[in-house]
Write a structure and sequence with these properties.
Number of strands: 0
Structural class: mainly alpha
Shape: elongated
Radius of gyration: 28 Å
Distance between the termini: 96 Å
Strand content: under 5%
Number of helices: 4
Amino acid sequence: MRPGRAGYAERMSSPYAPQTPPPGVPAAPPGHGAATVRPGDAAPAGRPGANPIGLAAALLGLAIVVVDVVMQFVRAALLAGDSPIDAIGTSSAIQGILVIVLALAALALGIVGLLLRGRSKLLAVVGVTLGGYALVAWVTSLLSNAMLAML
């Protein structure tokens, strides 16, 4: 072994120790080597990491849109058939309950996803936006129906 060079056992004592290239292989310029990443490390500064909570929020927001579209078709089918008006009211109540539960969950998970450091914020913003919009639309609908009932 040459003086000043660590042997294999010394270099491999820690899996996170900096690796030296074998003799005859030039060293990589700074910033161009394989990065040492340990479990639990934050994502590199240039690219935020995945945000599974934000993804869940966005998927719940998408579920709100799907529920709304499906329930519109259900109501159209009920109106086209000889269904009693109670069936249409029941479908609206079911839609309202589903949308509120999904919107609150999307909003909560989206906010949590926004608070995570070093994680992508895009999907969390989508979840907060869709959940917040659904809540505002529900409250607006509730208030307009209440005002119409007073007439």
